[in-house]
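Dock zinc ion; give full complex structure.
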Amino acid sequence: MDIDGARLLSDLRELAAFGRVGTGVNRLAFSAEDIAARQWLLERMRAAGLEARIDGVGNVYGQTPGVSKAVIIGSHTDTVPKGGWLDGAMGVIYGLEVARTIIEAGKDGGVDVVSFADEEGTFLGTLGSRSFVGALGEDDIARAENGDGEELSAALVRAGYGHQDRARLDPARHIAYLEGHIEQGPRLEAEGKRIGVVTSIVGMRRMLATFHGQADHAGTTPMRLRKDAGARLIAFAHDLTERLRDVAGPDSVWNFGRIAFDPGASNVVPRRAELLIEYRDVEIAVMDRMEATIRAAVETADGGGGVRTEAVLLEAARPAHMDPAVGAVIQAAAAAAGVEALVMPSGAGHDAMHLADKVASGMLFIPSEGGRSHDTAEDSAEADIILGCQVMVETARLLLGRTA
Ligand SMILES: [Zn+2]
């Protein structure tokens, strides 16, 4: 059973025209471009023979009619500001192309296709997939707004979705969830592999360390008499880097993403300093160890140089594990297409992390050129885009228990 590579690429290019900026796409959730792209996708799904609709949070959802079991395939079609043309969009068009291929083959069992709303968090990150698995509360919707102060509930009404009911995962029908995605990193390219099979999506925690010193004249105050919040932060960051190296796992990553000094002037000793720390790993135990290490470093630093030091946890997302049996099927499908897959974690979050709680889930990656993503430079080789979809149709076929 072969997908139509030319049709796949042509649909991807058509979708990329909604919100095009140079080689990239600007299609923020519930912008005019995003709403138009959802309508286009709805029509494409219907043309493919799916029973399709847009639900109450903007999910575009198409079901194969007349079947009792289905693999559900999807991702998202919204983008970050000035994002790439493949992030999310490719996984949705994979679903569409796999559904078309299987419907045309006239086989039993089916493929349902979904484009989840606002994965990128213009209003509320992974809004659509959270709604789809029943992990979204009314208070989550009520609180959410975009950077311009528009409320999510108002945006849903403006888009014409607000009064629709919300589509839900159907455990009696859905035997597995599959998501194809660009890797958004350099590992596949570095290893010379064309297909990645995701084991887990890493968990992430964000902590804010704050240093409380005293503002003084930077010319008149002797060094030994200063309570310099900025100098303490810099020493702390060095110390913490060493400590994290000692406790990190092989795939742990961490980042000091923002430093802020108050008042932030060349002639004033910083009164207050803030360090934003983010770290990720696939194992909760490793993340716990990293958090304990940060707290220990804070305890060591606290009070030194007359600067009080504290840290708070701002945000936490736990790791999500893909289903090993589904992963094995993706590997077998890749082998059938003549390539050996790389088994790897995902360092980025995806809609699959919510689906994985409720249904056997698998993710397939293809290489990102230069590892670039969340930028207009994002691209992948046409041959890899087509190969990924071919592996996905074979995966769906195997999962549906078919013979070609
Ligand atoms: Zn994405």
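Observed: The chain is about 35% helix and 25% strand.
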